Amino acid sequence: MGEAAHIPAPGRLTLFLTSVLLVFATVFAVQGTSSAFITLNHGNTRSPIQRETVLARDPIEGVSPDVQYDNYTLILKGQRVFLHSGELHTFRLPVPSLWPDILQKAKAAGLNSVSVYLHMGLTNPAPGVVDFDDYRALKPLYEAAMEAGIWIVLRPDIAGPYINAETTAGGISHWATTEVAGKLRTNATDWRDAWLPYIQGVIDETVPYQISSGGPVIAVQIDNEYTQKFATHAAYFQDLIDVYHNSSIDVLLTYNDFSSGRSFYNGTGAPDLVGLDAYPQGFDCSHPLNWRPVPTHHHAYHQEMNSWQPWYIPEFQGGAFDAWGPTAPGYDACRILTGPSFQSVFNLQLWADNAKLINYYMFYGGTSWGGTPYPGVYTSYDYGATITESRELGPKYDELKRQALFIRSSPEFYKTDWIGDSSTGVTVSSNNAVYVTQLKNHDTPTSFYIARHRDSTSNETAAFRLNVTTDVGQLSLPLNIDNITLSGRESKVIVTDYTFGASSSLLFSTAQIYFAGVIDGRDVLFLHGDSKQDHETAIYGSLPTEFHPQSTLVKIQRAQDIQRRKFSTITFLAGIEGLITLIDSETQLVLFADSVTAATFWAPSIAGAVDDPFRNFWGIGTNDSVLIGGPYLVRNASITGDALALQGDLKEDVRLTVIAPKHIRSLSWNGQDISPDFLAASDISMRSGVFVASLERKSSFTALDIPELGGWKYKDSLPEVQPGYDDAAWTLANHTTTNIPYKPYYGDGRVLYGCDYGFCENVVLWRGHFKATGAEKSVNLSINGGVAFAGSVWLNDVFLGTSFGNSTNNRNNIEETDDKFMFPAGALIPNQDNVITVVQDNNGLNETNYSTFDGDASKNPRGIRGFRLDTGQFGDWKVQGKVGGYRAFPDKVRGVLNEGGLFGERLGWHLPGYPTEGWEKRDLVLGLPDQKAGVGFFVTTFKLDIPTGLDVMLSFDFEQDLGQPYRAFLYVNGWMMGKRIANLGPQWKFPVHEGILNYRGENTVTVALWAMLPNVTVAPKLGLQVNGIYDGGVGNVAVNNPGWSSEDGRPKE
């Protein structure tokens, strides 16, 4: 793999020996150190970076020595790393300036990695065309990841052509679904020819940013969720692997097994590392409180399939997608289904399974704008994720942060052996209703007991005692209170013989660990627990003589002596709220807070040596941190001399708490100096380096002026049904063969599938000509557009009706219709050319069929699968989609999936700057004139003047109830940011980010309104709403919204 494929045999041997030498160098470095810890020589907030022996295993041939693994974890730059990751799809946030916002929020939550999908269909819009400009770019992502200190795992969209991801064709380029005759996702030669330029382009973009080149990329997934049982499928994976092996890529190649599919662990197509995807809660957001049992087979499956590798979960449920339909509950319900209780029970079960590489799908979902969704989902891809579509921290963020900072703080947790659980003879719980798994560090006495309800769906409260073996012998925990309490749908980690800081340790703790480390030579421990429960912890050694609990709810038992080891026990009785200091000595600082208060604290890392490219990566280039309490978000902390500079966001005025090195003399927040309250700080610590201050929002925070949308201009956008319309420039639809496997139902042998003519996405128009005798009474049309599509039909200028696809929360799905349209009296023009016009909305292409593993399920017959007059024959059929099809579309910035073939789209009416002089003044809420069926464009402009230094979340909201028979395509500054299907729903709110919106200038909003029935109310009311205001933000958001130009190659009116 990688450069080893380009060098002669001695060179490959050199790479192999380099890996071996790295292993031995690590071994002897540890053996030559008097302590198990080595401290980085920079900064003075240092914590120990744990160096431990890499197991004597063969390095992975062709993979950089910078990224290896043993059966416990990844080994990055010689360091053991628990990969804790969240999923991010950059194409669903098409503003590169905002990617650092998501990465900073991931880092602030304690994560150290993101998994990234790119989109072949957007990046490779036509054969041989690979475009890494604008939001398709990789370089700004990689550089933002380096700045944030976030590792990147590239997954199938970048690594292989298929991503699934509820996106059209599963990410495969639309052109390939029609131009490739061989089966997609097999070793078919023409499929290989289709994906190879794309993969090579990704390789070229990525090689300079691999870990071996000083970059953040550590792994590449070769493709997504498949099967090895067919030789053609296995050979396809092997083709992908061979391409990487014959390139300069030298990171791990990975694969995500699913449904315990037992594929690609070895044999043809097997990559370097295989993990298992898991969505144990399913996707029924309509019943968010109905839980499925937690899966218990993952550890055994890992031991059976690939015990020599670390246990990797490439996709673990971090939310759920929602479907079209009036009964669809929306993403707030999905956020409850997979909310903090789910995270507590199901995430910690992964820990109990000894998983050490975990990626949550999704961390940030974003927006399926334009034609990017597959038919089953609507525009929003919020996913009920940790970060909302509008980029706000959701209710799940705090629980994820509590978990992630525990992992970051606990290097002894990285190398654990699975001892057993309550189903295999580990009988440590006094209550059979409480299920406990024991993990034990391989090299130290440290154990982690992960407790949950045996019935993981239970809402009952359980009390239990834990019988453990510690370094001082057998103990029954807790010591001074009756029981450990486990609330319904809760999990806990009880630690024994746990090391924190450089030289301190706990005998045990039933209180949860939020943060552990070293700040300025002091061992710091931050404990937390539910304020309604009792908790207990025991610290090895004697408590300082000056120890005086700040609460009467804290009880202490000073030094006890067991096995000649002293320890002191601290009991926290129910009712504690807020932060209290337990120990404040020269060598230790121990804090406790209720879990809600704990989550208001942040632990930003302090960058390491300036000349170290990995200075921002925790455990590699730095182990230095400070503790910051109060703000909505802390994005960054840096120390220059005696000054600590903080950057972050405020939602409200807060009390700031800082625990930092004692030499710090000045503080700043977002560049503004802060005046500390030293008296208030003394309540936390009498030592230097602890500060308390007040942070207040800017005055502009409450002074926003968001305009109402008015002054609409209107123009009809369906001249195609008017007498005399000339379609001579349209594409003649005369194919009689197709690579799409779903053949026409009836007709005369012609194939009327849009993709075959370059028009796969969004609205496509068809015009079928026939010379009428006057005897024709009807036309039969079978229209295929995907779930929840629609197709409206006219005879000449007379509306005949609309075929409605359907989805009712993924039930009663209708992706094609077969209807007879009757001709009203007087609609025909005998002995002349008559035209059937079909306006069809394509809702994307399907994903791979996972019951058959048929990649050709994405080759969909979007268009007309059957056409027949009751008497007579059609002449020419013409077809028109977006201007230029997928080979010559003019809008290279927004890309191939942004727009469709409506007349107004083809002419650029949706673009900023299109001249609307002479258009009718008509309010959007009035709908189309005369309540007719058809399509019209409504355009207005408005100005924003949002002060810099604010992060404002805006959305366009349709303000009427569901049920009206219309579709609205919402364009904001030329970007299709929403599709409103008012007769189905559920979406009515469409978040739009700064960068698409110009926060300090003029904006254009366009609504292409398609009224699908006449003589009924179609009255969309649209408003611009503020959903959140934060003092701070990522800053410097660039706007790239090309406007209309008479020279852009679009047709003229």
From TrEMBL:
Name of the protein described by the UniProt record: beta-galactosidase
Catalytic activity annotation: Hydrolysis of terminal non-reducing beta-D-galactose residues in beta-D-galactosides
Signal sequence region: 1-29
Keyword Hydrolase: yes
Family membership: Belongs to the glycosyl hydrolase 35 family.
GO MF annotation terms: beta-galactosidase activity
Top-tier EC class: hydrolase
SMART domains, sorted: BetaGal_dom2
GO process terms (BP): carbohydrate metabolic process
Beta-galactosidase domain segment(s): 415-601
Keywords linked to the UniProt accession: Glycoprotein, Glycosidase, Hydrolase, Signal
A Pfam family hit: BetaGal_dom3
Coiled-coil residue spans: none
Protein EC: 3.2.1.23
